[in-house]
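Supplementary Note 3. Input sequence used for the single-chain structure prediction.
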Amino acid sequence: MRLALAAAALVAALAGARAADNFDYYVFTLSWSPGFCDTGGAAKQPGQCARGAAEGFVVHGLWPNSAYGGDPEDCGGGEYVSGAALKLTDGVYPDDGLARYEYRKHGTCSGLDPQAYFSAVKTLRQAIVVPDQLKAPRETLKTSPEALTRAFIAANANLKADNMAISCRNGELVDVRICVAKS
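The predicted structure, written as discrete structure tokens, is reproduced below.
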């Protein structure tokens, strides 16, 4: 229900998009902090990876995607992101640097200005329920991609296995990717 209610807010945020016909759908990506930190992320994001931070899933980004490859990136512009737009990212991205980077790399290809893009990201983050056991990990978790998929589906009634993917690297969970309609 929560995901369905957020859909109207997301449609409103995406409705302001400029011409962005070079992609078919979005991929909303939640990065698994322990996996990110264990696979070299600690050097990039020491605060996120600090001992005791207990970060679980954090927003990595909202990426325009093409059904047949050639996903758009770095579409130009995006050098300036206002403080008002960045304010929308409080509690959404691990830090402002990642938010700015994600807008430059992916948001500029969405047809959305920074404020609308970050509003869409925030709406999605608020709509997706992270399963309780994955919210603030204090110990190593061992599970399978299939079990993670089932846990996310159980926590989000409108989510289906065929519109999400679990990414792993060297036995570590990296992220959960959820396909979101362009409209």
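The first strand starts at residue 25 and ends at 32. The CA atoms of residues 109 and 173 lie 27 Å apart.
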